[in-house]
Structures are given as structure tokens and as C-alpha cells.
Amino acid sequence: EVQLVETGGGLVQPGRSLKLSCVASGFTFNNYWMSWTRQAPGKGLEWVASITNSGGSTYYPDSVKGRFTISRDNAQNTLYLQMNSLRSEDTATYYCTRGSSLHYWGQGVMVTVSS
Amino acid sequence: DVVMTQTPPSLSVAIGQSVSISCKSSQSLVYSDGKTYLHWLLQSPGRSPKRLIYQVSNLGSGVPDRFSGTGSQKDFTLKISRVEAEDLGVYYCAQTTHFPFTFGSGTKLEIK
């Protein structure tokens, strides 16, 4: 059974940093692209970042480019999202997803950016 | 960026009825490999999104065949035949052909 378990969320002040983790199980992790997608409270879905199987290429929307960094450790079956210079508009539930076709989603982790 | 226009924003339907949701993209979603990376997701209340249909018309594993997807290029439709109570939630279309990946604004399905 495919499982994606996100951790690392919480309350953080504007301008500070936070790092999310997603531990994957039930599939061969290094065979798949991985992504992060977020959902602000009561709002729709917004893609945040993607990374190729090997980690050699990464992709971001303009809203987070230069502030967020996606990475992975294929030996540990773990995906990361390093979030710097956080803003109030980054407040959201962050989901780890498998593949570029959004096949599997984790349960999500809440990030609140507030002073 | 590809804009995904999803309609209607909400639907109220009786059990057993059929419904359709439209999703139109601002540019063609056909990738250079010839495939179209348009997907449909359902977010049930309080849950993570779940992918129902991938690449326009392919049913996800375990998804009832009451769900079907059609369309091409820039115009896509999700149809739910014989709606059941468990189908309530918000439906999203999503494209992963072009970066940045983008989503429709969602269609909230309520049961009468």
C-alpha cells in the first residue's frame, strides 16, 4: 500500500524558515517524480514544487521560486521542502504527491505563518 | 501560465441523477509525447484530494465506473452517472502538461 506521511508543519513567524518532510513507503521511491501541492484554508489547490526521480531537476511556480527548495533522499525514501522567507500567504496545508500525474496524496501538514 | 476554467462552481443533485463538470484550458494540453495530462480529483470533506481520472479518460484504480472523462486539446468533461452519497465534495481538474502545473477552481457537489 502506498503511503506518504508529511511532517514538520507548525506555526512560524513571517520571514522565518521551516522544513517539511514526506516519508514514502509502498513503492519504489526513486522510480517517481515527486511534488508538493498546497491548499490555503478554504481555498483551492496550488502546485508548489516538483523534482525528478534522481533529484537532478526541480521546478517551481513564480510564487515560491527563490524561497522554497524541494529535495529528496532516495536512500531514505524521503522528500523535503525547505521554505525560507515565509509570508502570511504561505499559510496552507501542504501535501506530498507522487508522480507528475498527482496519483497519490499524503494526509497533509498545516503550516501557519503569523506573528 | 495555463488557466483552467471550471464550471459550474457548485452543483446540487439528487441520488441517482447524472451530472457533468466542464474544464477548459487556456491552451492545448497535448504534450510533446502526444499524451494529454489532464486529470480529475475529488476532495471529500476533511480529506486529502484523491485522483479519479488521469490523462483525460483513464479511470484510477478502485474508482467506480460511474465516473468518466472525455475531451481533447482544451475542452474536457467529467461525468458522474448515478450519483451516490459518497460522491459529495469538491471536484478539481488539473493539468500537468505545462509548468507551472495548474488547477481549476473547483466544483462543489452537494447531495439534495
Query: What is the multimeric organization of the chains shown?
Result: heterodimer
* Helicity range of chain A: under 10%
| Main structural class of chain B | mainly beta
Strand content of chain A: over 45%
How far is it from the N-terminal to the C-terminal residue of chain A, by CA?
A: 40 Å
Q: Report mean pLDDT of chain B, rounded to a whole number.
A: 97
Low-confidence stretches of chain B: none
Characteristic key phrases:
heterodimer, A: 115 residues, mainly beta, seven-stranded mixed β-sheet, four-stranded antiparallel β-sheet, B: 112 residues, 11 strands, 48% strand
Task: Describe the model.
The complex is a heterodimer of chains A (115) and B (112). Chain A has strands at residues 3-7, 10-12, 18-25, 34-39, 45-51, 58-59, 68-73, 78-83, 92-98, 104-105, 109-113. Chain A is mostly beta strands and 115 residues long. Chain B is 0% helix and 48% strand. Chain B has no helices and 11 strands. In chain B, strands 2, 4, 5, 6, 9, 10 and 11 form a 7-stranded mixed sheet that branches. Chain B starts with a strand and ends with a strand. The interface between A and B is medium-sized, with 20 and 22 residues.
